[in-house]
Amino acid sequence: MNVDHRPDAGRRRTLQAGFVAAAAITSSQAPTPAVAKDPPRPRRLTPFVVPLALPPVKQTVAALSPATGEQPCAGEARRVPHQIWDSPQRYYELDVGPGTHSFHPEMPPQTIWGYDRIFPGPTFVERYGTPAVVRIHNNLRADANGPGTPQITTHLHNLHCASISDGFPVDFYPGTNEPGLFRDHHYPHSCAGGDEREALGTLWYHDHCLFFTAANVYRGLAGFYLLFDHIDTGNENDPSPAALRLPSGVGKYDIPLMISDPRIDASGYLLYDQFENDGHLGNVFCVNGKISPYFKVERRKYRFRMLNASLARFYEFYLCTSTGASQPFDYIANDGNLLPAPLRNERKVALAPAERGEIVVDFSAWPVGTKLYLVNRLAQTDGRGPAQGVGNPRGADGLLT
Q1: Secondary structure in 3-state letters for 28-75
Q2: 72, 94, 357, 361: which could join 349 in a potential S-S bond, CB 3.0 to 4.6 Å?
Q3: Which of 386, 85, 107 is nearest to 268 (CA)?
Q4: Using alpha carbons only, what angle is made at residue 165 by residues 161 and 170, rounded to the nearest 5 degrees?
Q5: How far is CA 100 from the centre of its chain?
Q6: Per-residue pLDDT at 387
Q7: C-alpha 268 chain-centroid distance
Q8: Percent of the chain having pLDDT more than 90?
Q9: Is 54:290 a contact under the CB 8 Å cutoff?
Q10: pLDDT tens, 273-327?
């Protein structure tokens, strides 16, 4: 991540993406975040020692075998025929299974469940008007232990598609102790009613199995799915007068940020109570599966797609200097929809679970060597939601202490 062979490679600064649980981690440089009373106490971890992990962009395959179609094919999990069948132009295969993941170098490796066995899963980059089929293999063992269930159904959150490809909660298919069943999802990549105002850009896919959605997502079954069109083209140098020319290059200047709050014990292992029905609250903060990572940026504009993938926690994010002073940015989209016009000089992004918010930050505004922190200032001690009126009582530039 730190290698740059361009002539201006030295003109870099660091954005410290600091999601810090106050009970667990402190930093003499980082502003104090909101304090939540989240038992148990985790082990003390050193912040900002691991780089931000950027999920790989998912690559297509030339064809699927057996061939996909409107009718179920040999070996496919039970389903009815696709209600809509636009001839797919792109094909993918996802392997759902266990994988080994490191949340932090000072924690032991953990077994997670992941799409392609990684957390987060790979990022899809697609376009409106180009139908695709995603074949999702369930290679979780039927006798898997721990929270969650090896039965899966994958929901592409917010996509406009027919119900058979929606991944609704009761449409699950089992894991086995042999090579797993698969399900073909047909994604037409068309706007609802043909209305371009219904276009969505930042979506995410996750397991949606009845009664086990929270546990399966907690174990790692989630990833980004990005859609582009003639307005949000994915090319910041697009000459078209309709193009917004937003910062481009997924994983380079267009950065997905999946934010979650796992709960870890004093030994560094994940905890989850399947029978806790008032909402799971964690005690550390992760970005793209890493606890308190850092991200080095160039002196230019970046697009950040922020997803609240926590199970019950709400957030209020601020971009702060080491003194706690909040910094401005442009707010351009919410829940996948581009706003009619960007909100300039915003200082807060509030996100409920599963909500997305997109911002553009111009790092040329700060001197080389500046450290900025992405800080949550919303205290929450109840899994059913934050207390009414809880936030930052001292205003945008204050610090909770």
Answers
A1: CCCCCCCCCCCCCCCCCCCCCCCECCCCCECCCECCCCCCCCCCCCCC
A2: 357
A3: 107
A4: 120
A5: 19
A6: 82
A7: 23
A8: 78
A9: no
A10: 988 888 999 999 999 999 999 999 999 999 999 999 999 999 999 999 999 999 9
What DSSP string describes 250-293? BTTTEEEEEEE--EE-TTS-EE--TT--S----SS-EETTEES-
Q: Are 347 and 396 in contact (CB under 8 A)?
A: yes
Answer yes or no: are the C-beta atoms of 179 and 139 closer than 8 Å: yes
Q: What is the pLDDT of residue 179?
A: 73
Tokens 């080389």, located at residue: 368
Cα-to-chain-centroid distance, residue 208: 15
Report which residue type is found at 132: A
Q: Which long-range contacts (CB under 8 A, 24 or more apart) does 95-101 make?
A: 95/137, 95/139, 96/136, 96/137, 96/138, 96/139, 96/140, 96/152, 96/154, 96/180, 96/221, 97/139, 97/140, 97/180, 98/140, 98/141, 98/144, 99/220, 101/220, 101/289
Task: Put residue 395 in one of left, alpha, beta given phi > 0 → left and psi -120 to 50 → alpha.
Answer: left
> How much is the pLDDT for 201?
96
And the tokens for 390?
């809880």
Say what the pTM is.
0.88
